[in-house]
Amino acid sequence: MAEPDFSARGVRIERWPRSLTRAGEVRIEDGRLALLTSYGREIDSAPVGTVRAGRPWFAAPGAAVATLNGTRYRLTLDGRDRGGAEDRAADAAREGLCRRFLDALRRARGNRA
């Protein structure tokens, strides 16, 4: 079995205005982006060529917005609840994970197009 292009666990996946999971998984594998629950059940998936994703200017550190099959999802790539004074190193790690996700999505599009 091949390794996924990108995989992150502990992802908070929200479809406005409701949270679908606080500890889900985002996976890019075989030209598809899949959003999974913590139990591995698929929430949604789509070919990477049809997915729109980005990081809006108003998003919290580590958060991205992805549109799959016409549905917008907010992905917080470090799903832990934020509380009190946030450590800058933790924010940088969240940003790095979000950047890796967006880069992996772009690479997967390029490889499949």
Helix/strand layout:
Blueprint: E1 6-15, E2 18-29, E3 32-36, E4 42-47, E5 52-54, E6 63-68, E7 71-76, H1 88-112
Antiparallel strand pairs: 1-2, 1-7, 2-3, 3-4, 5-6, 6-7
Overview of the structural elements:
Strand 1 and strand 2 (18-29) form a beta hairpin. With 113 residues, the protein is α+β, with helices and mostly antiparallel strands. The protein has one helix at residues 88-112; strands spanning 6-15, 18-29, 32-36, 42-47, 52-54, 63-68, 71-76. The chain is globular, with a radius of gyration of 13 Å. The protein has a 7-stranded antiparallel beta sheet. The longest helix has 25 residues, at 88-112. Helices cover 22% and strands 42% of the residues. The protein has one domain (6-112): Pleckstrin-homology domain (PH domain)/Phosphotyrosine-binding domain (PTB) (PH-domain like).
